[in-house]
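To: structure subgroup
Subject: Chain for Friday's discussion

All,

I'm putting the inputs and outputs inline so they're searchable in the archive.
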Amino acid sequence: MSSFFLYQQVKDNIIAMIENHRLKPGDKIPSERELSRKFNIGRMTIRQGITELVNEGVLYRVQGRGTFVNLKPIRQPLGKLMSFTEEIRNLGYEPGAKLIDKAIIEADHEIALNLKIRDKEKVIKAVRLRFVDNEIFSLNFSYFSYEKFPEIMNMDLGCLSLYKMIEEKLGFKIKKAVETLGATSASNDVAKIMKIKKDTPLLLMKRTTYVMKDTPIEFVRVFFLPDKYNFEIQLSK
């Protein structure tokens, strides 16, 4: 049998183990020696199949530790407003959140512009890590007008769904959101929190969320690893 079919067989077998949930995101795959015995295929061919899966983003390597199953990229349809928690659960994953910091600060110009407040006006800042199946997925910097919504400071900003909490605690209905998406790189602070290297390429999403009468309630800057998140838009003629 040609080497192509052999290493394709290696790939197919590993993918089957993932799809059958014998290997889950974050799990370490068996060693080359173990896979060679299991599939009765030479280690060089095993290595080639694994390398292709790494290049395709299915697996990732950690130096000195081994090769692991990557989190399947989350696909978000653009134009559809859905909470992170709802979105992730609909895809069959387990969402998580951790509050890193909460403080009252002065709004910079971009925050003020998006929240329709004055520059340097007080805002509530909440820094949160989001997780999917216990893997770091994104880093969120959320801002709320302290003058308009002071109650938010006393809320559990580490909860899974901010939108749900806002609607239940404040009685406001989330009406719409406006998003922009661009490329950036990790600063020292962002890299430290996300446990990545400084200057790692990231996606930066900025979103302003509105309640009644086009009142902005939240402006958020969200940093994603590009291999963890895909945006999808449907076009019609």
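Points worth raising on Friday:
The beta strands are 59-62, 66-69, 74-77, 95-106, 122-132, 135-145, 176-185, 201-210, 216-224, 229-232.
The CA atoms of residues 46 and 214 lie 57 Å apart.

D.
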